[in-house]
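Step 1: inspect the first sequence and its tokens.
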Amino acid sequence: MNKQFILDNLRNIPDYPKPGIQFQDVSTVFKNTECLSMLSDELYKLYKDKGITKVVGIESRGFVLGAIIATRLGAGFVMCRKPGKLPGMTRKASYQKEYGYDCVEIHDDAIDTNDVVLIHDDLLATGGSMLAACQLVRSFSPKEVFVNFILELQMEGLKGREALKNENVTALLEVKR
């Protein structure tokens, strides 16, 4: 995987969604076929021998590669969404993010004890949404849980990796500032 090529296709949006936030926009990576293919190949290589049966994608950018890697691994895909977006019975977890509070939900019947789960999202910053997703997934008592990000931000004040210290975390790329 050509990491620099992917990083060169990443877009930074200053002061979004509020002043002081440097938003790392992966949509520019997703629109580039070569980048998307590289990321898909790299994720497949990382997880092809792990016995993954379900991939959980976190709303909304985690849906893109989450669904792709689920298909490549022959696994099911589970959506981890914001409140009120999933019909039927759900489990919910709240979290704090760098610019406010939020909540995520997963269907009550999405995962079982025989599953090996990969939770995927685009970006690790504070780790709040992923920590909430991990809590939800672990409430189903799956056999094993893996956590993956496209990009890990390593900036002062962001302690995402530390927040997920009890999880098996990989990030394909790192941005240091």
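Step 2: inspect the second sequence and its tokens, then contrast the two.
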Amino acid sequence: MTICLPFLFFRLISMITNAQVKTITALKEKKFRERSGLFVVEGRKMTQELIKSDYEIEQIFACKEWIEDNKILVASLNKIANLVVEVADRELSRISSLSTADRVICIVKQRKTNEVEWQTNEKKLVLALDDINNPGNLGTIIRMALWFGVKDIVCSKDTVDCYNPKTLQSTMGAIFHVNISYTDLTEFLFKNQKRNIYGTVLLNGKNIYKQQLQNDGIIVIGSESHGISDKVKRFVNNPITIPCFAPSNEVESLNASVACGIILSEFRRTIF
């Protein structure tokens, strides 16, 4: 009996198919995510936030420990459809993009995003991202947005894909609670040019700490390397600057996500 136990144990665990491995691996690339309309979510924290959202889950691959810790959830998911597949730790590591697989991996349908509009008399802040190309920066910006109560993010078409694995991990689950859309940013700003459009610039901007900021309008964040592009900058009617207190030529410009956090903090401070 002792010799047979390991054999019986592994027979109880579903083997992930080669087709499923191929799908998950392919979804690490943008072109396959766009073609399929799917993306991959990894880890306990991300999955916890995913389940609380309105995203539709196609499949969950999880180790025995995660399934036992989430028995009620697994039972409810498998009652609707057999969404949860138990796999061995070694199989999970095989399909994970993390250095250490974190118990659960989900295949998820991309959500249709809503066009950003203001309802009558509605006041809200919207983030507009102009060619942000660093996945980690985008993920942190999304996380910052949720923290400061900004629910709409409009990205230029050249901004990195929000479903990029590195972006997803950087959001820490915030992506599931924010509306993110990709569009021609100049068209979006032209349509809303009568609103307050704030833009962070290095030169000729007003000191953000000395302004009476309005919690209604659009905040444009430029790319890490070039800032706000000229075609977008012409729509900025409220240029602002985060002043540098270091001696000149001793520091580079701020990271885009850091600048975004400072700006959102200042906007929200004016509420109190």
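Step 3: confirm your contrast with the notes below.
The longest strand covers residues 57-62. Residues 96 and 267 are 39 Å apart (CA to CA).
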